[in-house]
Amino acid sequence: MSFTEKSAETRNNLRTLRRSIPDTFAGFVQMEQAASRDGALSHKEKELIALGIAVALRCEDCIISHAGACLRAGCSREEVAEALGTAIQMSGGPGLMYAGKAMAAFDELSAG
Length: 112
Hints:
Blueprint (H helix, E strand, L loop, with lengths): L2 H18 L1 H15 L6 H15 L2 H13 L4 H35 L1
Helix pairs in contact: 1-2, 3-4, 3-5, 4-5
GO molecular function: peroxiredoxin activity
Protein name: Putative 4-carboxymuconolactone decarboxylase
InterPro entries: AhpD-like (IPR029032), AhpD_core (IPR004675), CMD-like (IPR003779)
């Protein structure tokens, strides 16, 4: 399954979850919006951080989501690569494997 297909599947899963727990879901969305607004760090910088954390936590759905968010925020491939380098530094071998997935997801999403 491609990263584009996995992204669509994740969005569908989240729609189903949102219908089941609308208040909880809305609270999470509100927190996410507040946390990702421009402040001392830009939204773009925060997405790079989120992608690095997704790699370190080994959350493939999070990686795909934040790779797409990095693309929409205007992150370059070089910026993503450097953020992934830091994620590898902090998470070792498993981070290296998931960073490879993150780079592939960013590349696929940016091509499509």
